[in-house]
């Protein structure tokens, strides 16, 4: 029974193994068949690429180039291209054929790696051959195109040189001394053109191309000269000469009318410019066109400067003549104003301390005016003597007008700073009178209160204000009053007076309220020990220490503890009565407590 079971399992295993072998063999066969098809396709693609090489008609192009009868460098280049083409036909094409056969043969085997390498090698060889053919074709095209271009250039240059000859002949007067040089230049170019023509006709486009480059450069230079020289010559022969004559005439005429020029070198500069004209004409003879262009530009600038010098003097004179009278009056006005200011300062200096350099500033103004007067007289003398350089005087007078305006403004500012000194003194004296009266009234108010005494701090403040008032009075009665110092004292005293007034009002209010509150509290002395004790303390502060604020605080707090609102009513009635009498306004503390 066991033996049969093992026999059945063995057959099953053999059957499975057989199926696997059949599948593997089938897969291998299918893979090999696919590889062979792919190899055939690769070989076909290589062959098709090789067929594309034959489409380039190099044989025809070589035949066409050969008919050009090339010589010299062109013939040498043709030979190099032909040798490269022979190498392509005799070496590269057979190699490609052999590599295609190798790829096909590889397709019959199973060496996949070798087949792919051979296929890549064949493709690379075809690419190299294709590049070689294109280089050969480009070289032949260049020879052909050069020859064609040169033949066209021969025709065009012949026409151009014919026009150039005609232009030189017809317009020879406009070239001035350059005509011989231009004709020689054209003759040299025509000689180079003959050489270019021979090389072109002989079939050597490569050598002809080198000559053509030089020929075009020389022709462009000649055309450039023919365009620029007439303008340069016209400037030298006509424009500059006419301008120099005009400048000479203008200069002579202005000098005859009394005009002067700063650093007058007109004669020398005109002679130098005339020499430069002759020198530039000589440079034109030698065709030094760039040198003449630069020299002409410098001459034009020099001529413009001479024109500007004439124009400056011509325009400046009427301006100076118009301004001179007005300037003289302006100087006189500023002089009179400064003299008046000096007199006023002298008077004020007898009564006041001038501590802002007013007198020194006035002296400085005087020195500046003296300098302006001296310069003005010199200008007038030069004009009367016919030696005036009007452009320089014009510039100087403009600055003088500015200086005079600044001086006038400074004088006005100085005048404004001193004109009100007497008014300020009077204002200070009026303030002193008011301060004195206010302090007397304040003392009378205090005396009317019949207070037992005054706190030391208050007496010190009162005495301090009195000292300040006395000092102000002393300073105002000095021989020389320092208005700045006095004005500052007035400001300080007013501030201290305001403070003292506030303290006075507060002290009197505290004293009156303390006295009324003590009197009101007396009704509770027999029944309330706390009020009795507070009343004794409050009277001691009031009569012995003169501390009315502390006296009021002591008795008012005790009274409020006994009868809430009692003190508030006393205070309210006091302020109402005070207001109805028209006494001084309540203090800030009163207003706050009242709220």
Question: Would you mind describing this structure in some detail?
Answer:
The protein is mainly alpha-helical and 595 residues long. It folds into three domains: 18-153, no CATH class; 258-422, no CATH class; 449-580, no CATH class. The chain has helices at residues 2-53, 58-66, 72-106, 112-170, 179-201, 205-256, 266-285, 289-349, 358-384, 390-419, 421-448, 456-476, 483-521, 529-543, 548-562, 566-581, 588-594. Helix 4 (112-170) packs antiparallel against helix 5 (179-201) and helix 14 runs antiparallel to helix 15. The longest helix is centred in the middle third of the chain and has 61 residues, at 289-349.
Task: Jot down its keywords.
595 residues, 3 domains, flat, cell membrane
Note the run of SSEs as H and E. Answer: HHHHHHHHHHHHHHHHH
Q: Overall mean pLDDT score?
A: 79
Percent helix among the residues?
Answer: over 70%
Q: What is the 3D shape?
A: flat
Task: Report the uncertain regions.
Answer: 1-7, 26-33, 67-72, 584-595
How many strand elements?
0
Rounded radius of gyration (Å): 62 Å
Query: Oligomeric form of this entry?
Result: single chain
Distance between the termini: 130 Å
State the secondary-structure class: mainly alpha
Number of helices: 17
Query: What's the structural domain tally?
Result: 3
Strand content: under 5%
| Main beta sheet strand tally, sense and closure | none
Protein name: Septation ring formation regulator EzrA
Organism: Lentilactobacillus farraginis DSM 18382 = JCM 14108
Keywords: Cell cycle, Cell division, Cell membrane, Coiled coil, Membrane, Septation, Transmembrane, Transmembrane helix
Family: Belongs to the EzrA family.
């Amino acid at each position: 029974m066991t033996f049969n079971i093992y026999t059945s399992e063995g057959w099953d295993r053999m059957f499975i193994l057989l199926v696997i072998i059949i599948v593997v063999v089938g897969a291998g066969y299918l893979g090999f068949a696919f590889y062979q098809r792919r190899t055939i396709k690769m070989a076909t693609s290589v062959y098709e690429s090789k067929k594309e090489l034959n489409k380039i008609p190099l044989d025809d192009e070589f035949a066409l180039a050969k008919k050009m009868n090339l010589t010299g460098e062109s013939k040498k280049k043709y030979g190099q291209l032909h040798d490269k083409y022979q190498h392509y036909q005799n070496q590269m094409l057979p190699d490609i054929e052999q590599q295609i056969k190798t790829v096909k043969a590889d397709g019959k085997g199973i060496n996949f790696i070798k087949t792919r390498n051979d296929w890549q090698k064949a493709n690379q060889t075809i690419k190299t051959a294709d590049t070689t053919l294109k280089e050969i074709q480009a070289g032949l095209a260049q020879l052909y195109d050069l020859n064609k271009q040169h033949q066209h250039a021969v025709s065009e240059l012949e026409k151009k040189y014919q026009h150039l000859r005609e232009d030189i002949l017809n317009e020879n007067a406009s070239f001035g001394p350059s005509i011989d040089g231009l004709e020689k230049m054209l003759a040299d170019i025509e000689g180079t053109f003959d050489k270019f023509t021979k090389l072109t006709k002989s079939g050597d486009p490569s050598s002809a191309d080198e000559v053509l480059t030089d020929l075009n450069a020389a022709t462009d230079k000649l055309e450039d000269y023919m365009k620029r020289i007439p303008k340069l010559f016209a400037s030298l022969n006509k424009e500059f000469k006419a301008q120099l004559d005009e400048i000479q005439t203008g200069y002579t005429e202005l000098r005859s009318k009394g005009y002067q020029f700063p650093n007058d070198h007109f004669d020398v500069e005109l002679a130098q410019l005339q020499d430069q004209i002759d020198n530039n004409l000589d440079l034109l003879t030698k065709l030094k066109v760039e040198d003449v262009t630069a020299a002409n530009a410098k001459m034009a600038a020099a001529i413009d400067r001479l024109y500007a010098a004439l124009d400056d003097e011509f325009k400046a004179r009427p301006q100076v003549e118009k301004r001179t009278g007005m300037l003289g009056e302006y100087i006189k006005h500023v002089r009179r104003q400064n003299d008046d200011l000096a007199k006023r300062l002298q008077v004020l200096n007898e009564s006041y301390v001038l501590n802002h350099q007013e007198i020194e500033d006035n002296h400085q103004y005087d020195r500046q005016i003296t300098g302006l007067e001296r310069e003005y007289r010199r200008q007038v003398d030069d004009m009367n003597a016919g030696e005036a350089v009007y452009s320089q005087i014009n510039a100087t007078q403009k600055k003088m007008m500015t200086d005079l305006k600044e001086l006038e403004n400074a004088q006005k500012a100085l005048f404004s700073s001193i004109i009100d000194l007497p008014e300020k003194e009077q204002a200070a004296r009026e303030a002193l009178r008011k301060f004195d009266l206010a302090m007397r009234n304040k003392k009378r108010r205090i005396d009317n209160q019949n207070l037992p005494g005054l706190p030391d701090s208050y007496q010190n403040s009162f005495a301090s204000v009195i000292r300040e008032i006395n000092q102000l009075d002393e300073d105002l009665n000095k021989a020389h009053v320092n208005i700045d110092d006095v004005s500052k004292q007035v400001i300080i005293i007013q501030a201290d007076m305001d403070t003292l007034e506030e303290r006075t009002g507060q002290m009197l209010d505290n004293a009156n309220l303390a006295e009324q509150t003590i009197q009101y509290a007396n009704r509770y002395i027999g029944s309330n020990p706390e009020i009795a004790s507070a009343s004794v303390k409050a009277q001691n502060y009031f009569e012995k220490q003169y501390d009315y604020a502390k006296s009021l605080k002591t008795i008012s707090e005790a009274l409020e503890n006994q009868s809430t609102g009692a003190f508030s009513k006393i205070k309210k009635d006091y302020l109402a009565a005070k207001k109805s009498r028209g006494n001084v306004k309540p203090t800030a503390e009163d207003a706050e407590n009242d709220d």
